[in-house]
TrEMBL record:
Species of the source: Nocardioides plantarum
Pfam families xrefs: Pyridoxal_deC (PF00282)
Record family assignment: Belongs to the group II decarboxylase family. Sphingosine-1-phosphate lyase subfamily.
Keywords: Aminotransferase, Lyase, Pyridoxal phosphate, Transferase
Cofactor: pyridoxal 5'-phosphate
Gene Ontology MF term list: transaminase activity
The protein's name: Aminotransferase class V-fold PLP-dependent enzyme
Amino acid sequence: MTDDIAARLRALQAADLPVHGGRTLAYVYDSGLAEVDEVARRAVASFAGSNGLDPTAFPSLLTMENDLVAAAARLLDAPDTVVGSVTSGGTESVLLAVQGARDAHLATHPDVRPAMVLPDTAHAAFHKAAHYFGVEAVLVPTSADFRADLDATARALDELGERVALVVGSAPSYAHGVVDPITDLAALAAERGIRCHVDACIGGWVLPYAARVGREVPPWTFAVEGVTSISVDLHKYAYAPKGTSVLLHRTAALRRPQFFASAAWPGYTMLNSTMQSTRSGGPLAGAWAAVQSIGDTGYELLTREVFEAVDAIVAGTTDIPGLHVVAPPDSTLIALATDDSCDPFTVCDEMAARGWYVQPQLSHGAHPATIHLSVSAATRPHVPDLLTALAEATRAAQDAGPVAVDAGVAAYVGALDPTTLTDDDFDGLLAAAGLVGDTPGDDGGLALPTRMAEVNALLDLASPALREAVLVSFLDRLQRPTGWPA
């Protein structure tokens, strides 16, 4: 790499959130182990050009994949019959779990549109799978503790009857960090001969170690009868480079619909175990290197550290007026809410001003907006600073008062129809939200403000369908060609 290109890359990266240091509490997961990160980065570079398309051409990748699947199976109390695949991330794992259930269902019910039953807290990846694969996502409400409502789930299963291809539970749910009642959900599914998938993309590599170090963890692994598949991300609490996830099935027969083969063209016979054909060996090698480097003892230590951080944050927020924990977390995710003295969006802005990134979560149904924290082991040494920043940010938000959207703008948003959103409507929203720069350029004049509270408050007024339409339009404007360096 030339010095000039390296300098350009550093300049581009300067505006990104930091991926190390424990101060970014969303999107990244930091072990704080610089030597592990270095080993994993070298592995990624060494295998970046290898191609997982054909395991006979690159047997090293097959060996590493089987090693990682075996490690995950051992961790998740899997029987000897379990099989698995390494995917590009949690979303691909979820997509494949839904696709496999759909195809198995269609094989026996060819004239019935399949459905899946999931809590309204299930990850949006399941909605993406429903959209892609023509499966109806039937949402059931959660109880006051944000866990799947078993009575509502049973009613939905009985009403849908033979249409149900899959029941879903989370370990934990992303928004609130709690584990669904997997034992009961799996039993409901098993009684009816339905697959049950546990989305443990977040908790899959940390909850088993939490149990080992003596924390109380609700049952959710393959030790639960009726659980047929589990997804667990390695680039989260296995602290591997992005992006790798593992999808495990209790038996090979359950995985079989996931495979794709085609000889219907004059080239090589395509054979894929995942959604991708060509797959760089880099992420796989990086994950293998990270898991090998850290080992069981290392993961137990990291798990102690991350839960010490979680406990300290939960305890510390009780001393911050105006802020409270929404639900006692089962895992490493914390949702915080504000009282009427301030709003979570301004708190997020104030945290960013103090060098911390915490994620705003918009309101959903009857539940108000919250602040999301994905805690990593690397955050543990900085918890006192984090709590100080939270207290200061909350006081600053209280001094400013809850963010308000202009009444005229609110009325404009309320009148918009997401199904007929035009470019002119979107331009009006951009202007109202302050997202249009003074000097339009190749990006159409889009400009993100340094503070996002008013933008988030505006989005919070919109219906979910309108939020989706607005953000799709925004992404479309962002992703436009710019001038390539000469």
